[in-house]
Amino acid sequence: MPHITISDVTKSYPPQRRGDGPVVAVDGVSLEIERGDVFGIIGYSGAGKSTLVRLINGLEPVTAGSIDVDGTDITAIPERRLRELRQGIGMIFQRFNLLRSRTISGNVAYPLEVARMPRAERAKRVAELLDFVGLADKANAYPEQLSGGQQQRVGIARALAANPGILLADEATSALDPETTDEVLDLLARVNRELGITIVVITHEMDVIARIANKVAVMERGRVVESGLTYDVFTRP
Ligand code: ADP
Ligand code: ADP
Q: Mutation test of ligand 2: which of 54, 97, 108, 151 has the most ligand atoms closer than 8 Å to its C-beta?
């Protein structure tokens, strides 16, 4: 059974102006993401990628269709269960979304505090996570003292804190220079390989997909226009 099955999913928003039709952000999308995939979703701005990710995460309801995660149809469960399931999905963002008033440790600890993990266990887990992303020496620094690449590594540590089975990366390297992008992609590849986490990578950059994704779906105007193994979808010289 696939890890994530998206079946004929549509998401539309009410018209922006009177007289306009609804905005169809995602239009009849079906995809199967297998356990252990690094699945790329590529498309220009406005293609519907972020909306699709918010639907997978259950942050917004679908207009039609269903999304099965780990054998549960997340479009058919109450908000309470959805919040529990969301703990099993980590997320990283283009702008990192770190709390500037908290140290690096404090940022990584945040989701564990929300989950009420006891203090001693939490400290151990945070140390382990910072070690994994190579930032043990920055535990007491603040986000603005770190480079962009380092901040994204903190974002990854935080996303991994609750031991998710899935990591959603929304334009996670788009704010980074090429060298730092490589560093973050290498870390994501390790997350996939060493921790066995399924990763969904959203990007408008072909290079990112070519470097890390084994499969790819190309989105245009809310639809998947092509999908398959990256090796087959991308032309080679
Ligand atoms: P991408 O991530 O590929 O840039 P988005 O999913 O952000 O694309 O947007 C897809 C389309 O849906 C765009 O036309 C966008 O304006 C529209 N859209 C996204 N979110 C909303 C919203 N909350 N309300 C209205 N329209 C939205
Ligand atoms: P919300 O609108 O629910 O505050 P955001 O849109 O800021 O969420 O971020 C989306 C998701 O990213 C949240 O559901 C949460 O799981 C995660 N997230 C955002 N900020 C943090 C944070 N400081 N610590 C841990 N997780 C966070």
A: 97
pLDDT of residue 157: 98
Q: How many CB atoms lie within 10 A of CB 163?
A: 11
Q: How many angstroms does the Cα of residue 67 sit away from the middle of ligand 2?
A: 21
Q: Is residue 41 within 8 Å of 33, Cβ to Cβ?
A: no
Cα–Cα distances in Å, from 202 out to 5, 32, 226? 17, 15, 15
Can you list the pairs that 23-26 forms with residues at least 24 positions away whose Cβ atoms lie under 8 Å?
24/222, 25/51, 25/222, 26/51, 26/52, 26/55, 26/222
Give the pLDDT confidence of 98-119 residue by residue, as tens digits: 999 999 999 999 999 998 999 9
ipTM > 0.90, yes or no: no
Dihedrals phi, psi of 55, to nearest 5 degrees: -70, -40
CA 142 to chain centre: 24
Closest CA to 192 of 215, 224, 221: 215
Give the integer Cα–Cα distance in Å for 78 and 98. 29
Query: Could you give the C-alpha distances from 233 to 29, 30, 50, 186, 236, in angstroms and in order?
Result: 18, 17, 21, 22, 9
User: Which protein residue has the closest C-alpha to ligand 2 atom 3?
Assistant: 59
CA 48 – ligand 1 centroid, Å: 6
- Check: CB of residue 118 under 8 Å from CB of residue 126: no
Q: Which of 125, 126, 170, 127 is nearest to 152 (CA)?
A: 170
Question: Are the C-beta atoms of residues 150 and 144 closer than 8 Å to each other?
Answer: no
Ligand 1 nearest-atom number relative to CA 170: 2
